[in-house]
């Protein structure tokens, strides 16, 4: 009896040791870990730079009306002052009374914000729509709008402007021509969001490099009327080519961060095209040598932007990526990718251009 009890105790003890050994716990945790919960921390002993202010004065060419109260706007301006941001461009998407309301709220702050409007697509399938939309554009310009944006087309047609999306109508549609021409006459730059990062068009599976965001931003390629990434870039090129007197800003590197040669070729061909670098810091920072070479080469055509709110941590990570040579660091909460980031260590000459000089040319109408 005692022998049987002894053997039973030994067996139970063995099971306990097996279950609770570090190797077993590690295997269980890894098998149960979800990608969305993966939070790697770098163990490399490398420089870690904290940026409290941009190296040179800055104009933020891509933001939105995030703050809705005087208190929040005051806090925003405090953060702008702390990081050396002279002015922020607000892409409101709006027309009509909604635009007027945003304009009246932000125009009180001594030129710290510049407010841009959208296009009114209401009735875009009806005869005479272009003329009505141009009339509203002129009205917004008289109110104080100094640019257009952000327009947006991810494959199904123009959708960002309020109050109505224009499904099935793309930037190079003939109905858009009178509006884009009028923008040139009024010296109103057009900020346009074409496509999404390429991961969002690929299968959402184990091979998708950007899976953590690809799943959230997935583009449904089966929807009727859908056009693909390459075709979307072509609509941008057509519009830029056909409206040579209008300045276009392709935001987010024209969503060509996976292949910057695509954007580079467009910049080579069309002097009226610029690109902002907003909200794609995490998409380019994993390939710092390639990205640095591109930005240095096209430093006269790129614009700093954020598009990620107005908190201090957001500003700090953008300047860390652009200014430092820091290696293998993570910013998952801000960007939601699992991969490490690297500083681009841009030259002073390039920083001055993308932070301020290029934007000043556009805003002053001397580009």
What spatial form do the alpha-carbon principal axes imply? globular
The overall pLDDT, averaged over residues, is: 91
Q: What value does the Rg take, in angstroms?
A: 25 Å
**Low-confidence parts, pLDDT < 50 over ≥5 residues?**
5-26
Helix-strand makeup class: alpha/beta
The percentage of residues in β strands lies in 5-15%
Q: What is the helical fraction, as a range of percent?
A: 40-55%
Count of helical stretches = 14
Taking the alpha carbons of the first and last residues, their distance comes to 96 Å
Q: Strands of the biggest beta sheet: in what spatial order? A: 4-7-8-9-10
Q: How many DSSP-defined strands? A: 10
Sheet with most strands: 5 strands, parallel
SSE order, one letter for each helix or strand = HHEHEHEHEEEHEHHEHEHHEHHH
């Amino acid at each position: 009896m005692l022998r049987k009890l002894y053997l039973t105790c030994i067996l139970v003890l063995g099971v306990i040791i097996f279950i609770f050994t570090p190797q077993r716990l590690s295997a269980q945790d890894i098998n149960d870990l979800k990608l969305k919960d993966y939070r790697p921390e770098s163990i490399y002993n490398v420089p870690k730079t904290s940026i409290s202010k941009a190296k040179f004065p800055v104009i933020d060419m891509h933001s939105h009306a995030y703050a809705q109260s005087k208190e929040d706007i005051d806090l925003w301006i405090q953060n702008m002052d702390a990081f050396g941001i002279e002015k922020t461009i607000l892409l409101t998407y709006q027309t009509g009374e909604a635009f007027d309301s945003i304009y009246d709220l932000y125009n009180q702050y001594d030129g710290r914000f510049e407010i841009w409007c959208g296009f009114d697509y209401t009735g875009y399938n009806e005869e005479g729509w272009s003329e009505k939309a141009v009339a509203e554009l002129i009205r917004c310009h008289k109110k104080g709008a100094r640019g257009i944006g952000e327009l947006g087309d991810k494959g199904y047609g123009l959708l960002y402007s309020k109050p109505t999306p224009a499904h099935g109508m793309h930037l190079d549609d003939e109905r858009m021509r009178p509006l884009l021409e009028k923008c040139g006459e009024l010296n109103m730059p057009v900020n346009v969001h074409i496509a999404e990062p390429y991961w969002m068009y690929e299968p959402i599976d184990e091979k998708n490099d950007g899976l953590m965001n690809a799943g959230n931003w997935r583009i449904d390629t089966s929807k009727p009327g859908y056009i693909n990434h390459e075709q979307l870039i072509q609509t941008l090129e057509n519009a830029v080519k056909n409206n040579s007197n209008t300045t276009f800003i392709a935001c987010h590197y024209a969503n060509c961060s996976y292949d910057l040669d695509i954007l580079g070729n467009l910049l080579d061909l069309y002097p009226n095209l610029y690109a902002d670098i907003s909200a794609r810091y995490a998409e380019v920072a994993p390939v710092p040598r390639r990205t640095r070479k591109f930005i240095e080469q096209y430093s006269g055509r790129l614009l700093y932007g954020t598009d990620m709110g107005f908190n201090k941590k957001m500003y700090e990570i953008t300047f860390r990526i652009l200014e430092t040579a820091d290696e293998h660091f993570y910013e998952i909460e801000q960007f939601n990718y699992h991969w490490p980031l690297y500083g681009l260590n841009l030259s002073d000459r390039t920083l001055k251009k993308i932070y301020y000089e290029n934007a000043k040319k556009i805003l002053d109408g001397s580009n």
